[in-house]
Design brief:
By secondary structure, this protein is α/β, with parallel strands linked by helices. It has ten helices and twelve strands.
Amino acid sequence: SAVARGLTDFGVLLFNRQARSRQWEVAVVSTYSNHFVLVGLGHLGFGVVRYLHALDLEVVAIELDPEAELLESVKSMGVSCLVGDGQRQETLQEAGIERARAIILCTQNDTANLKMALKARGVNPGLRVVSRIFDQDFAQSLQQQFGFVAMSATGMASPAFAAAAAGVDVTRPITVEGESLSLAHFTVAPQAALEGISVGDVEQIYDVSVVRWRRDAQADFHPPFDLRFQAGDVVFILGNPERINEIVHANRAGEK
C-alpha cells in the first residue's frame, strides 16, 4: 500500500545516513514556506546565515562545494544545507524557491548571481532578491531594471545583507571614526516590540540614531525623544549593521 511504501521510504532515510544527508534535507525543506534561500556558503554567506538564524528565520543554504567545517557549523545551528549547483532549476526547486520569501546570492560570480536571480524570479515573481555584485555600476543597473537589492560586496558586512533580505533597506556601510555605519529604513510592523516605544528609548536600547520619521503626511528629520512609534510609521535610523539587525528582530509583526 501507499502507507507501507511511505513507511519503508522513511525507514531508508532514517537508517541510511548517506541517503539521509541529502534526501532528509530536501524532505525537511519541503515543509518550509516564507523562508530564505541563500546560495554561496563562503565567508559572507555563512555570516548572513548566522544573522538570519539569530532572527529566528528559516534558511536553506545551497553550496556546490562546501568546506566541511562551514557545513558542520551551519548544520549545528539546525539550518538546512543542500549540496548542489544553485544555477540549476532543480536545485532551486528543491530549496522551495516557489514558496520562499527571498533569495540571497553570495557567490563571487556576478554573472552566476544574475542568472540565479532571474531563474528564481521566473519561478516566484514576488520573490525579494538580494545579490552580491562586485561591479558597483552593474549593481545599480540591476536595482533600477529589475528591482533587485544588488550590493557591491567590497566592504559589505554580513549583517547588512541579512537585514536587506529581511526587508529593510540598508545602505552600504561607511566608516566614521573607525566604526562601520549604515542608514536603514523600515515600516513599523503591527504588534511588534517597536510599537508604542519612544524615539529616545529606541536610541538608548539599540544604540542607533533616529534620523527621520514619517507618519502619513507628517515627517520630521529630528523627531522628539518622547514621540512613540505606531504601526505604519516609516523610520530611518543610522547605526552599525549588528544594531540594525537587532531592530529588524524587534520589528517582526506580532512579536511584542
